[in-house]
Amino acid sequence: MLTYKVLWRAKCRTKQGFQDIGYPLGPDGPSCVDIMKDNYAKCNNGGIGGSTQVGCLVFTLNAGRKDNYY
């Protein structure tokens, strides 16, 4: 089972005061989909999942296998 979540990092502030979840670094940066794909493809734990912070947003993929989850 895959679960995805995006959270605002506690006490984090951006210069503009907000971020777009779909394109957190603006229209020329990576999309939410790209970031979540990389959380799986570039993880070093056998595909269980991972988190990436982009600005103040934390993108997390929990993929898991059997009884082993991120």
Question: In words, what does this structure look like?
Answer:
The chain contains one helix and three strands, in the order βαββ. The protein has 70 residues and is of the alpha+beta class. The chain has one domain (3-13, 25-62). The longest helix has 10 residues, at 32-41. The N and C termini lie close together (12 Å). The mean pLDDT is 87.
> Treating each run of at least 4 consecutive H or I residues as one helix, how many helices?
1
Q: What class do helices, strands and sheet pairing give? A: alpha+beta
Count up the domains. Answer: 1
- Poorly predicted runs of 5 or more residues: none
Question: For the CA atoms, what is the radius of gyration?
Answer: 13 Å
Element order: H for helix, E for strand: EHEE
How widely separated are the two ends? 12 Å
State the total count of DSSP E strands. Answer: 3
Biggest sheet overview: 3 strands, antiparallel
Strand fraction band? 25-35%
Average pLDDT works out at 87
Helix content: 10-25%
The backbone outline, from C-alpha atoms, is elongated
Spatially, the strands of the biggest sheet line up as 1-3-2
